[in-house]
Amino acid sequence: MRIGIVCPYSWDVPGGVQFHIRDLAEHLLRGGHEVSVLAPADDDTPLPPFVVSAGRAVPVPYNGSVARLNFGFLSAARVRRWLHDGDFDVIHIHEPTSPSLGLLACWAAQGPIVATFHTSNPRSRAMIAAYPILQPALEKISARIAVSEYARRTLVEHLGGDAVVIPNGVDVGFFAGAEPKPEWQGGTIGFIGRIDEPRKGLPVLMRALPRILAERPGTRLLVAGRGDEQEAVAGLPPEMRGRVEFLGMVSDEDKARLLRSVDVYVAPNTGGESFGIILVEAMSAGAPVLASDLDAFAQVLDRGAAGELFANEDADALAGAALRLLGDPERRKELSERGSRHVRRFDWSTVGADILAVYETVTDGAASVATDERTGLWARLKPSPSGD
Question: What sequence ranges are listed for the domain Glycosyltransferase subfamily 4-like N-terminal (predicted)?
């Protein structure tokens, strides 16, 4: 099958949607399919062979974050050329309502279109206001996927229609097989995310840290991600700042090793999350997970059975839960084992098969329609027995 996938966000700025698309493409390629991904990217960015650049992106505030998007006449021309050259059996567009390549591709594409909705935003005034513009494009979509029930709910409430829920996928074996790093072990808490993006919740974790260090002074916080490190620790007492180790941007291999090494992985995100791929990665690596009680996180963690939850934005609740876990190896082992079992449903062997089934459904439907149209055309052109 020839599959074209449209990524709305800049390929060179890591994010959950980009990782999902990359892993999906690699899974489909391993299955023998032809795959091309169209994504915004700077001209000097090294790209995998299956990614085609649609040009540089620009930063735009979006869903409580800053997304790097690509939109305009030049982008539209590149989208049309990519569609023409690819001659795809199915187009898979991610975030078709964002002002980026997804919407442009939805306008330009012909044939079966599958759309995946990642955003969870129950009060999106922008989406409501833009509905008249989006409607003609959305009507061309053959099948809709939402990565969670909360993304599906956002879609239904703002745009109507419905979607099948297929979660983000993870290569569980990659994380489970990573080697722990000795220097990252021993009384460590892990955090991975953009340091200077408030909704990722690092400020909440920093407010909890003094109480954690007061009771367990040997604890270290390992932070992986880009951002202003000095600003991140500015609120800590000077004597505690050395207990925070900033690792900067880490490779996929080091991310897996970090998650395999820490005693507790903390996800203190404050909102705007529709799924929580980092939770799945942490569980795949066997890390005991402590997360804010966002609806999407609670769903991923099986309502607290596969990881512990604390009240969102409550630094004291976070500190108390972290201290209990750090002091209870048996509870950490229990969470690790439960998470490892629970996470199998998110492996690409399952998620990829579900997405491929959607592709096959829409392409089979398109083939049936095309056959019906050809049959009808032949009936109209075929001479009648009477010669009329």
Answer: 14-172
